[in-house]
Design a protein that fits this description.
The complex is a heterodimer of chains A (225) and B (460). By secondary structure, chain A is of the alpha/beta class. Helix content of chain A is 38%, strand content 22%. Chain A has eight helices and twelve strands. In chain A, helix 2 packs parallel to helix 3 and helix 6 crosses helix 7. With 460 residues, chain B is of the alpha+beta class. Helix content of chain B is 57%, strand content 16%. Chain B contains ten helices and twelve strands. The chains are: A alpha/beta (225), B alpha+beta (460). At the A-B interface, helix 1 and helix 8 of A face helix 5, helix 6, helix 7 and helix 8 of B.
C-alpha cells in the first residue's frame, strides 16, 4: 500500500516508518499538519496515519479539511488523545479507525489492513465462504462441508467479522470493539473464551484448521495454502 | 413548575401566613369596633325609653294622673306597637291607658321579647317602668331599629373582610408565585449545572433585591467552579498526552531492544515482564482518567433513549460463556413487558454492566450463580447483578465504591481496584442510584435509573 504518515514525534515516526517499509509498504512522511494536509490533498494514498496533536494544524482539522475537499482516503488516527469523547469525535469527523498510544506495531498493521482500500464485498452478497466453511447471511446459517453448525449470537457475530475480513489479522481490541462494542479492557477473557468456543464448533470436528492464532497479534481466518 | 411543589414552597406558606395574620387582625379590630357600636346603640334605645318615662313623670308630678292618662292615650295613638309600647295603670296591673299587655304586673326593667308585650315574639324590647304614687307606667322601646343598624354594619364589615381576604390572598399568591418562579429558576440552573452543563447561569431580574444578590453570588461560585473543572479537564488531557508520549517511546525502545536481543530467551522473558508492567500502568492510568472525565460530565451530549433490557442481553450473550469457563453460571431475567427505557450512553452502560458481571465472575467461587436482571420499580427502570458468592461486609460497602479499594488484597491483586469506582461514576453521570445489598448469601448491586422522560425534562 502507499501510505502517508503524519506524526511530529520523531521516534514514533521512525519506528512506524521502519515497520511499514519492512512490511513492504511505500511510505511518505510529514511532521506537521500543514505539510500533511498538502501531501494528502496532492497525492492519492491508500491510507493516512494521522496524529491528533500536531504543530501547525491539528489532526482533527486536517481530517475535516480533507473531507471538506472531497478527499476520501481512509484515515487512521494514531494519537495520545484518549478521552472518552475523543474517539467518537474523531470517527464523526470522518476517521476510519482510532488507535491510542502506546500501541503495538502489529495492532497498527492489523488496523491499517482493515481500512486500506480493497475490493469491497457487494452489498447483495449473502453467502460468504472460506474453504468449505459457508455462511448464509439471509438464512443466518453456517455450514462446513455441508454440515450445519449452530452458533450462539456472539459466536455468529465473531465468525461474520472474520469471514468478512478473510485473510486479515484481527487484533483482540479490534474484536472487542467490532463484535462486542467494548471500548474498555475487560478483566476477564471474553475474546479468548469465544474464540475457543467458535473453534470447537467450526474447526475441531474437521481436519483443516481455519481459525488461526497469530502470536502477540491476534487471530485470522484463512483457507490453507 | 409542578403545582404541588408550589404549595409546598416557603413562599406559598409565607403568603398563607401573611394573609391569615392580616385577616385575623382585621377581624379582631372589627369585633372591637362592632362591640363599641353595639353598646352605644343599646344605650340609645334605653335612653329613648327612659326619657319618655321621665316626660310622663313630669306630667304626673305637675298635673296628676288624668293628665298622664291623656298623654298616654295621645302617645298610644301615634305609636306603632311594633316600635314603642306605652302602658299606664294601677300598681296591680289594671290598665288605665295605653297598649294592652298580657301581664303588665310581671314586667320589670330590662330586656324582654315581643310575646310579653303581645307583639311578634322575635322582636326585643327595652322596658323601663316608673312608679308614680299608686300608679305604674311601663314604657317599652323596640331594638328593631338598632338591630337593623347592627345588621347593616355587620354585613358591611363581613363584606369588607371577605374582600380583604380575597385581595390579600391574591396579592400574596401572585408575589409568592413570582418569587417562587425565580427560586425554581435557581434550582433548575443548579441542577443542570450539577448534571454537567457548566455554562448555565442564573438570570438576574435587575431588581437588585435579595434574590438578585444571592443569584449573583451563586453565579460567581459557579464561574469559579467551572474554571476549576475546565482546568482539571485541560490538565488531565495534557497529562494524558504528556504521559502517553514517553510511555509510547519506552514501548518502541523495548521493541527495538527485543529485536537486538533476539537470540537471548532470558532477556526476552524480562522484556515481556516490562511490557506487562507498562500495560498495567496504562490500564490504571486510563481508568483514572476515564473516571475523571465521566465525572466531569463529558459524555452527556451523546445520550440517547435505550432499553436497559438490551444492555442486559448483550452482556449476557458476552459473558455466559466466560462464566461457564469459570465453573459458574450467568442467568438473565428480563420481563419483556417492562419498559426499561433510560436516557443514557450505550457504550458506558455496557461498560457498567460488564464491570459488575466481571466483578462477580472474579470474586464468586466455582458453582456460583450470577444473576443479571432488569425491571421497573415505582417508575424507575433498574438493572441488577447478583451472585451467591462471599458478598461484601456491611462496613466495607461504601468503601468498595471508592478508587483503588480492594476487598481481598491478597487474592485479587491483578485488578485495578477501579472497576466499581467506574461503575459509580457512570451511575452518577446518569443520575442513577447505586444500591449494594446482601443477596443472602452474596452481593446484589442494583442501579435505579430515572424514567427517560424525567431525564429529558431535567436536562431542560
Amino acid at each position: 500500500m502507499k501510505l502517508l504518515l503524519v506524526e511530529d514525534d520523531a521516534m514514533t515516526r521512525d519506528y512506524v516508518h521502519a515497520g511499514l517499509i519492512g512490511a513492504g509498504h511505500a511510505v511518505e512522511m510529514a511532521d506537521d499538519g500543514v505539510d500533511g494536509f498538502a501531501l494528502a490533498k496532492r497525492d492519492a494514498y491508500d491510507a493516512i496515519i494521522l496524529d491528533r496533536m500536531l504543530p501547525g494544524m491539528d489532526g482533527l482539522s486536517v481530517l475535516k479539511s480533507l473531507r471538506a475537499a472531497n478527499v476520501e482516503t481512509p484515515v487512521l488516527f494514531l494519537t495520545a488523545v484518549s478521552g472518552v469523547d475523543d474517539r467518537v469525535e474523531g470517527l464523526e469527523a470522518g476517521a476510519d479507525d482510532y488507535l491510542v498510544k502506546p500501541f503495538a506495531f502489529s495492532e497498527l498493521a492489523a488496523r491499517l489492513a482493515a481500512i486500506g482500500r480493497r475490493p469491497a464485498l457487494s452489498a447483495e452478497q449473502s453467502r460468504l465462504t472460506v474453504a468449505d466453511l459457508e455462511m448464509d447471511l439471509l438464512r443466518h446459517r453456517v455450514t462446513r462441508g455441508g454440515q450445519v453448525i449452530y452458533l450462539l449470537p456472539k459466536e455468529y457475530a465473531l465468525l461474520e467479522y472474520f469471514i468478512r475480513s478473510t485473510g486479515r489479522v484481527l487484533s483482540k481490541t479490534m474484536l472487542l470493539e467490532h463484535v462486542w462494542g467494548f471500548y474498555f479492557d475487560p478483566q476477564t477473557s471474553v475474546v479468548e473464551t469465544h474464540i475457543s468456543r467458535l473453534r470447537a464448533k467450526i474447526d475441531k470436528p474437521f481436519d483443516v484448521e481455519l481459525l488461526q492464532t497469530i502470536k502477540n497479534v491476534g487471530y485470522t481466518l484463512r483457507a490453507p495454502e | 413548575m409542578r403545582p404541588n411543589s408550589f404549595f409546598r414552597s416557603t413562599y406559598f406558606r409565607f403568603a398563607i401566613a401573611l394573609t391569615a395574620a392580616f385577616v385575623a387582625a382585621y377581624l379582631i379590630a372589627g369585633w372591637i369596633a362592632f362591640q363599641t357600636i353595639n353598646v352605644d346603640l343599646e344605650q340609645r334605645v334605653y335612653q329613648t325609653a327612659a326619657l319618655q318615662a321621665e316626660a310622663f313623670e313630669t306630667v304626673f308630678e305637675a298635673e296628676g294622673s288624668q293628665a298622664v292618662i291623656d298623654a298616654v292615650v295621645q302617645a298610644t295613638r301615634s305609636a306603632d306597637p311594633e316600635d314603642d309600647v306605652v302602658w299606664f295603670g294601677s300598681v296591680d296591673g289594671e290598665r288605665l291607658a295605653g297598649h294592652r299587655l298580657p301581664n303588665p304586673a310581671a314586667l320589670l326593667d330590662g330586656d324582654v321579647f315581643g310575646d310579653r308585650l303581645g307583639v311578634e315574639e322575635e322582636d326585643r324590647f327595652r322596658i323601663v317602668t316608673q312608679q308614680m304614687g299608686d300608679f305604674r307606667l311601663i314604657v317599652g322601646r323596640s331594638y328593631e331599629e338598632s338591630d337593623a343598624i347592627k345588621n347593616a354594619v355587620f354585613a358591611a364589615f363581613g363584606g369588607a373582610t371577605a374582600l380583604t381576604l380575597v385581595l390579600a390572598g391574591l396579592v400574596a399568591f401572585l408575589l409568592a408565585r413570582r418569587a417562587q418562579r425565580r427560586i425554581d429558576q435557581i434550582s433548575r440552573t443548579l441542577h443542570a449545572y450539577s448534571q454537567g452543563d457548566l455554562d448555565r447561569r442564573i438570570s438576574i431580574s435587575g431588581q437588585d433585591d435579595d434574590l438578585d444578590r444571592l443569584s449573583g453570588r451563586i453565579n460567581e461560585a459557579l464561574s469559579k467552579l467551572q474554571g476549576t473543572v475546565n482546568g482539571i479537564r485541560l490538565v488531565s488531557s495534557d497529562i494524558a498526552h504528556d504521559l502517553r508520549t514517553p510511555i509510547n517511546r519506552v514501548g518502541i525502545q523495548i521493541e527495538q531492544i527485543r529485536g537486538e536481543l533476539a537470540e537471548q530467551p532470558d532477556a526476552q522473558e524480562k522484556l515481556d515482564g516490562v511490557t506487562a508492567e507498562i500495560s498495567r500502568i496504562v490500564t490504571t492510568f486510563d481508568a483514572v482518567l476515564r473516571i475523571a472525565q465521566i465525572e466531569a460530565g463529558a459524555r452527556k451530549s451523546r445520550f440517547q433513549v435505550l432499553p436497559l433490557a438490551s444492555i442486559a442481553d448483550t452482556i449476557h450473550e458476552s459473558y455466559a460463556a466466560v462464566a461457564e469457563e469459570a465453573g459458574q453460571s450467568l442467568e438473565i431475567t428480563c420481563n419483556p413487558d417492562d419498559s426499561t427505557l433510560v436516557f443514557g450512553d450505550r457504550d458506558l452502560l455496557i461498560q457498567l454492566a460488564a464491570n459488575l458481571v466481571e466483578n462477580s465472575i472474579r470474586h464468586a467461587p466455582d458453582n456460583a450463580i450470577i444473576r443479571l436482571s432488569t425491571g421497573v420499580a415505582n417508575g424507575c427502570p433498574w438493572l441488577d447483578v447478583s451472585d451467591n458468592g462471599p458478598g461484601i461486609p456491611e462496613a466495607e460497602k461504601a468503601l468498595v465504591l471508592t478508587r483503588f479499594y480492594r476487598l481481598d488484597k491478597s487474592r485479587h491483586g491483578n485488578g485495578s481496584g477501579l472497576g466499581l469506582a467506574i461503575v459509580k461514576a457512570i451511575a452518577d453521570l446518569h443520575d442513577a442510584e447505586l444500591v449494594l445489598t446482601d443477596a443472602n448469601p452474596g452481593l446484589s448491586v442494583r442501579i435505579f435509573f430515572k424514567d427517560y422522560r424525567r431525564s429529558f425534562r431535567d436536562q431542560g
